[in-house]
Design a protein that fits this description.
This protein has 30 helices and no strands. It is mostly helical. The two termini are 15 Å apart.
């Protein structure tokens, strides 16, 4: 009779899954962007010997502001010089501390002269890119005007205002006290309907910044969902990919942040977000098999994350994937094959998706075992950064019972399992122990083969590890008993 084991059978995604899921939900991409433009600056040298590396003095900045009151040509020229000067942190500080500097700049920004307005907007954009809270706070009086010009006729100005607002939105105080009451959500909703891809992409960037703020879960995401923007985002993620992926990338990250918040994922599921994104992944994988696409990993990453996290929701209906589980699995392996090793982070995301796919679906586990691509999964056991996730997927399969363990025993082969025991990562070895326990429990023949192939000796190497010692000793006892008395195995294991 087998001795009892103090062993916690892994639940959904195994014990490692909870920590991974948390990491996938919490990781953010808050950052600022500076739009670059191809404007010649041969005449933008002021007292620095033709260079722009030195910060401007207070006197030089004051002179630029005084010149901004002169004729149109001189004002535009002065603003270009000011914008160039504001690339320096020291000059930014000098500028905001000068009396009436922001009032003058905003006055020029609201000018009815297009060239003057654009140069003033570029100055504001330089300031918004600053990491100095004082500089960003100095931009507050401009936010209402930035929002106003989102509905203007100039695509270039609208795009610039969007990225400036996106940079400002990275600051919590700005979001809470100014942008939301001033109506940034409706303004961005309008920009999302623009026929210009540059405007759509800029709106996606600004919205993604808002969705990552500390106030997002309580104050922003409910507004976004109530405005019906989630369906519009989904449409933009899946549209116009032949014209560039910038829009799709921005709004797929927006969807990711909304899904991670779990404010109302039931709504997203009811809108068929999951099957729509799965079809997108199938299309992207199909594209990769015929034509290499530069930068495709930038879109695959957030879409895979969205699918993974939606699969983790209890409301998700597994039937949504039953029509094409093999197609989805093959698509995942297309990504793994094409992004390894250059973009290894995509491989990790794909393994996380496999983890969530196999966590609660015995049918999909059977499909995965039957694929000719299963050996490719096993090969990743030898990759230190991927081994733990691969083992988690294998544990998901083994947890489904005797039939799956029998197939896994035949497919995975014990040498792979024994090789995984030599890994230096204690977390990965712990997953090996979980997998071995499940195999021995549901298919005792695996324990007999394990002992015959010196598996006990491999286990003994880990007896000195306090984190693993209890499980190692329990597994040694289990394997030894099964190997010594295979005829005494409980009914149903033979």
């Amino acid at each position: 009779m087998l001795s009892s084991l103090d062993w916690t059978t892994p639940t959904t995604g195994c014990c490692f899954g909870t920590a991974l899921r948390s990491a996938r939900r919490l990781q953010q991409l808050v950052s600022k962007r500076l739009l670059q433009e191809d404007v010649l600056i041969d005449d933008i040298s002021i007292g620095t010997g033709g260079g722009t590396t030195a910060p401007f003095s207070e006197q030089e900045v004051s002179e630029l502001l005084r010149n901004s009151h002169k004729g149109t040509e001189e004002r535009v020229k002065s603003l270009r010089r000011l914008r160039w000067a504001l690339q320096h942190k020291e000059t930014q500080q000098t500028f905001i501390r000068l009396e009436s500097s922001m009032r003058i700049l905003i006055g020029l920004f609201t000018s009815n002269l297009a060239d003057l307005q654009m140069e003033a907007a570029r100055c504001l954009h330089e300031l918004s890119y600053s990491e100095d809270p004082e500089v960003v706070e100095a931009c507050l009086p401009a936010t209402s005007y930035l929002l106003t010009y989102l509905s203007g006729h100039s695509t270039t100005l609208t795009e610039l205002c969007l990225y400036t607002l996106g940079n400002l939105a990275a600051e919590t105080k700005i979001v809470k006290k100014h942008l939301l009451p001033q109506g940034i959500i409706p303004a961005l909703a309008s920009c999302m309907q623009s026929p210009h891809l540059a405007v759509q992409e800029g709106a996606g960037y600004a919205l993604s910044q808002l969705l990552q703020s500390k106030e997002a879960t309580e104050e922003i995401i409910p507004l976004v969902l109530d405005s019906g923007l989630s369906q519009q985002m989904l449409r933009l993620v899946c549209s116009n990919l032949d014209q560039g992926m910038g829009v799709a990338v921005e709004f797929s990250w927006c969807l990711h942040y909304i899904i991670c918040s779990r404010v109302n994922n039931s709504l997203l599921i009811s809108q068929r977000t999951l099957p729509t994104l799965v079809r997108l992944l199938l299309a992207l994988a199909s594209t990769m098999t015929t034509t290499p696409v530069e930068g495709l990993e930038l879109l695959v990453c957030p879409v895979v994350r969205c699918v993974s996290n939606l699969l983790a929701e209890e409301e998700t209906c597994g039937g949504e994937l039953q029509a094409e589980p093999e197609c989805l699995l093959r698509a995942v392996f297309v990504f793994i094959r094409n992004f390894l090793p250059k973009h290894f982070f995509i491989v990790q995301e794909c393994l996380w998706l496999l983890n969530n796919l196999t966590a609660d679906d015995p049918t999909l586990c059977s499909v995965l075992l039957g694929l000719d691509l299963f050996p490719s999964l096993l090969q990743l056991l030898h990759c230190q950064k991927a081994s733990e996730l691969v083992l988690t997927v294998l544990c998901n399969i083994a947890a489904k019972g005797p039939a799956h363990c029998q197939a896994l025993h035949q497919k995975a082969r014990l040498p792979s399992l024994l090789g995984a025991l030599t890994l230096s990562d204690a977390q990965a070895v712990n997953q090996v122990l979980e997998l071995a326990h499940l195999l021995f429990l549901h298919w005792p023949e695996a324990a007999i083969d394990f002992v015959d192939q010196s598996g006990l000796q491999a286990l003994e190497h880990h007896q000195g590890n306090p984190q693993l010692q209890e499980k190692v000793e329990a597994l040694i006892r289990m394997a030894s008993q099964l190997a010594a008395s295979p005829q005494a195995c409980p009914q149903g294991f033979n």
